[in-house]
Amino acid sequence: MEKEIGAIKALGDFISGQSETVLPKMINSYNKRKQGMNFLKETLEPLLTEFIKINLTLELNPLQVYQAMINEHEIKTGEPSPLPRGVTAEEAAENAEVKSIIADRLESLSNVCQKFVDGIVKSLDKLPYGLRWLMKQLRDLCLKALPDTTEDDISKVIVYFVYYRFINLAIVQPDAYKIANDDLPPIARKNLITVSRVLQNLFNFRKFNKDTPGETPFVPLNDFIDKNAPMVQEYVAAIYQVPEIGRAHV
């Protein structure tokens, strides 16, 4: 790890892929050991089991919601929908029923994401000691080798290794980590991607931007991000606060 850090110019190179290093692969392999897999199963399985029971789509794109309304009407009645076709996303978003549907889904999505955040934060003491120790070494080495490194830089890399490359992968593909059955319903898979998108922004302390393509429907969830950011900041800062080897179990 010391050699790898000595070969990069900035800590963010681990995330950006600007430097060819083996450290990300090393930590990913480490995470797949028994301790890591047990942690994921114990932490996420109860959340996923409850989540999969939600048999309603969390789609927020107003155009897709609008089109689904048309399809549902025509399937139910066998007659063409009275809604005009070929509308823009902006026009679809102004439809009263679309607004109501999306408002309900935003509330459901916020509630679901809150359960995941609470579950992840409360599981800190169960996070594999070895992974937390590696993050401690990463921080200490970076502060020595890269004097311009800030605590914010360190937090981003810790989030990358602990949340994005570990916990998040199991949320998006729970069956690959034997946390859910292989026959995960398609609607649940799609919903998990939506949940993952919100949680990634939260753990990266990044709000949704209405001017960024595809993010406009998620902007109302910035309140959720603001609300939970302090708790996630405390969680990330506590990850590397562990005793040295010899005083804890690896």
Task: Explain the overall architecture.
This protein has helices at 2-6, 13-16, 23-31, 34-52, 62-77, 89-93, 96-122, 129-145, 151-172, 186-203, 222-239. The protein is an all-alpha fold and 250 residues long.
Show the helix and strand layout.
Elements: H1 2-6, H2 13-16, H3 23-31, H4 34-52, H5 62-77, H6 89-93, H7 96-122, H8 129-145, H9 151-172, H10 186-203, H11 222-239
Helix pairs in contact: 4-7, 5-7, 7-10, 7-11, 8-9, 9-10, 10-11
Task: Fill in the keyword field for this structure.
single chain, 250 residues, mainly alpha, 11 helices, 0% strand
**Average pLDDT rating:** 89
Distance between the termini: 18 Å
Give the structural class. Answer: mainly alpha
Task: Give a count of the beta strands, DSSP E runs of length 2 or more.
Answer: 0
Number of helices: 11
Multimeric state of these chains? single chain
Q: What is the H-and-E element order?
A: HHHHHHHHHHH
Fraction of helical residues: 55-70%
Rg calculated over all Cα atoms? 21 Å
Beta-strand level of the residues, as a percent range?
under 5%
Report the uncertain regions.
none
Largest sheet: none
Taken from the alpha-carbon principal axes, the silhouette is elongated
Short précis:
This protein has eleven helices and no strands. It is mostly helical.
